[in-house]
Design brief:
By secondary structure, this protein is an alpha/beta fold. It folds into four domains: 133 residues, Rossmann fold, CATH 3.40.50; 76 residues, Helicase, Ruva Protein, domain 3, CATH 1.10.8; 90 residues, Zinc Finger, Delta Prime, domain 3; 69 residues, no CATH class. Helices cover 49% and strands 7% of the residues. Strands 2-3-4-1-5 form a five-stranded parallel sheet, sandwiched between helices. Strands 6-7 form a two-stranded parallel ribbon. α16 packs antiparallel against α17. The longest helix is centred in the last third of the chain and has 18 residues. The termini are far apart.
Length: 446
């Protein structure tokens, strides 16, 4: 039984904790979000119910509950919770912990759940130390990482683990969490009389980018900065307005890693938005990468590729514009070159789309790779080099400019293959009509 002094000391420590720490879930049922693997039919729920947790990797952005979930898993599986940080722990400390876990298990003791935060920071030799004990079930490894484990974690360790990707909390989930904190008298802000005005909690949720820790920190600052003491009895209630919230927020840092999967995901989002003709989404993802310090040359290269790959001859101006943007960015530099990038993204988004040129070259190269190679027809071969004329090279060639239509009825490939199929959009719809007549003339049809 704790003494009054110990209870008072514990209460003082609790009060010193930030709201996000106090509101940390104490049971799995209190955990907010990640229903795709923690819902009733989610895989992680099934692993817990079957007592076959094994080793797992928790991958996702900060503030989504990776560390909290690791603690809850230890509680749910009745395992000893041991934590290491890959930033501060070395091989020696890791080996000692694994030896203790093995000895505990061999003597009939409790199994160990080993939580390693930022596991991608372990080098290969440190990760290799884990392999044997993970495979033998000596410990249940729970590794947390903000980096894609397929890029950052030892392949052998990944193959021995279930991977659960955390999603940022939705605005609705964050609002629910904030309301819970406002009403909780034991751990939250329930001791204060707070009147929440329209849009205040939604503003916090929108500003938090799915990060529960950030949302709770903003709420705590917003409430406590407006009060000088507990709002009880006759004390007027605290008004939580959008203005009060706005004054308690800092400018958000951009979560963007130029060398990680965030880089690939964001450029993928921009390209797919432009391809899908959503100009506003295209410009947003462009801005996200610029704010994150993305290499402008990389952006330019991607836009030049997209102009041919996804627009092509549906709008022949797209490629020259993208090339001009690349040249302008090289000449002007940041910050002004963002204007050329924005102009180009807007134009490419609104341009008619066609991948006909892309599929044409892909089909032709596939034929070649698969052995369907066509020899150069004799009448198309070069007749100028020594001995070519004697071999009959160029015999029968018809010079197109000497025909009335500018199209000579002759074979250029030698087999009946069609690779280019214009789409009925933009300028390519005109090419589609022209091509029907051209192919007819090439065949000599009347």
């Amino acid at each position: 039984m704790k003494s009054l002094f110990e209870e008072s000391e514990a209460e003082n420590r609790r009060r010193a904790q930030p709201l996000a720490a106090r509101m940390r879930p104490q049971r799995l049922d209190e955990f907010v979000g990640q229903d795709h693997f923690l819902g009733a039919d989610g895989l992680l729920r099934r692993l817990i119910a079957a007592d076959r947790l094994g080793s797992i990797l928790l991958f996702g952005p900060p503030g989504t509950g990776k560390t909290t979930l690791a603690r809850l898993l230890a509680s749910e599986t009745k395992a000893r919770f041991r934590q290491l940080s890959a930033i501060t722990s070395g091989v020696k400390e890791l080996r000692e912990l694994l030896d203790t876990a093995r000895e505990e298990l061999s003597t009939g003791g409790t199994r160990t759940l080993l939580f390693i935060d930022e596991i991608h920071r372990f080098n290969k030799s440190q990760q290799d130390v884990l392999l044997h004990d993970v495979e033998d079930g000596i410990v249940s490894l729970v590794g947390a990482t903000t980096a894609n484990p397929f890029f950052a974690v030892n392949r052998a360790l990944v193959s021995r683990s279930q991977i659960f990707e955390f999603q940022p909390l939705s605005p609705a989930e964050l609002v629910d969490l904030l309301q819970r904190a406002l009403s909780d008298k034991a751990r939250g802000l329930g001791e204060w009389k707070v009147e929440v005005r329209a849009g205040a909690l939604e503003l916090i949720a929108d500003h938090s980018d799915g990060d529960a820790r950030r949302a709770l920190n903003i709420l705590e600052v917003s409430v406590l900065s407006a009060a000088s003491g507990p709002a009880a009895g006759g004390t007027p209630p605290i008004e939580l307005t959008q203005a009060a919230v706005a004054g308690s927020m800092q400018r958000k840092a951009v979560d963007y890693d130029r060398d990680g999967d965030n880089h690939y995901d964001t450029i993928s989002a921009m390209i797919k938005s432009i391809r899908g003709s959503d100009v506003d989404a295209g410009i947003y993802w462009l801005a996200r990468m610029l704010e994150g310090g993305e290499d402008v040359r990389f952006l330019c290269r991607r836009l030049v590729i997209l102009a041919s790959e996804d627009i092509g001859n549906a709008d022949p101006h797209a490629l020259p514009l993208a090339v001009s943007c690349m040249q302008a960015c090289e000449f002007v530099g940041l910050p002004e070159c963002q204007l050329a990038l924005s102009q180009t993204v807007a134009y490419l988004s609104c341009a008619p789309k066609s991948n006909a040129a892309t599929t044409a070259i892909g089909a032709a190269r596939r034929d070649i790779r698969e052995g369907r190679v066509v020899p150069v027809p004799r009448h198309l071969r070069d007749s100028h080099y020594h001995g070519a004329a004697q071999l009959g090279h160029g015999d029968g060639y018809q010079y197109s400019h000497e025909t009335e239509s500018g199209i000579a009825s002759q074979e250029y490939l030698g087999v009946d293959r069609q690779y280019y199929h214009p789409v009925p959009r933009g300028f390519e719809s005109e090419l589609q009509q022209r091509l029907v007549a051209i192919r007819r003339q090439l065949r000599g049809d009347s």
